[in-house]
Amino acid sequence: GAGVSQSPSNKVTEKGKDVELRCDPISGHTALYWYRQSLGQGLEFLIYFQGNSAPDKSGLPSDRFSAERTGGSVSTLTIQRTQQEDSAVYLCASSPNYGYTFGSGTRLTVV
Amino acid sequence: DAKTTQPPSMDCAEGRAANLPCNHSTISGNEYVYWYRQIHSQGPQYIIHGLKNNETNEMASLIITEDRKSSTLILPHATLRDTAVYYCIVRAPNRDDKIIFGKGTRLHILP
After folding, report:
1. Facing residue for B93 by CB, picked from A35, A59, A97
2. Which residues of B make CB contacts under 8 Å with A?
3. Which segment of B26-30, B58-62, B81-85 scores lowest on mean pLDDT?
4. How many Cβ pairs within 8 Å bridge chains A and B?
5. pLDDT for the residue numbered B99
6. Interatomic CA distance for residues B107 and B9, integer angstroms
7. At CA B8, angle to CA B3 and CA B14, rounded to 5?
């Protein structure tokens, strides 16, 4: 597609359940980023993939969070044993070498 | 930490030029200045970027000081739809590093 696609657009889950969020970047973009944005807050960096290099996981808030990028394209962000503080909009962005294109995000609500 | 500082909020009358400042005093010689904006409930949107020369596109103009330690994003004729949070970031192309967004400037366009 022409843009970065994220799914689902909305997810409501019960506390303690695992969730998977998907990001389809723009074809050919080598870099892929995950951010999250809690209500009324700025963008919080989570993880960054660049080509075949080891990902930069320095922004992941706990070991309940993990992400992978298969074949240098689609990425999945997994949150295990979700907590209420995980509720946020999770944004994915991809980039060729400069400039970002963001997806519309996944709004995660943990109840 | 973000490498840029911006005022937390600004007001601008509809139809007037909105001038959004950004300080990036530690910018490196090969780093570009990028501007993004985030309209409520949407992913951030690219606006413009530049290295040292002033830039203009259909959305905005970017004025970078001669010492490159600060810049100003200009929306020439602000409309209500320009109400958003505006983020200024610096980044070198082709670099394997994550980008940290600051808190941005919340621009209110007043009717």
Report:
1. A97
2. 32, 34, 36, 38, 42-46, 49, 85, 87, 91, 93-94, 96-104
3. B26-30
4. 54
5. 75
6. 6
7. 120
Name which of A45, A97, A102 is nearest B98 (Cβ-Cβ). A45
CB A92 within 8 A of CB A109: no
Q: How far is CA A31 from the centre of its chain?
A: 13
Other beta carbons less than 10 A from residue A36's beta carbon: 24
* Average pLDDT value for chain B: 91
Q: Which of A93, A98, A102 is nearest residue B32 as measured by Cβ atoms? A: A98
Specify the pLDDT at position B86. Answer: 97
Q: What is the pLDDT of residues B61-109, one digit of tens each?
A: 999 999 999 999 999 999 999 999 999 999 877 665 677 888 899 999 9
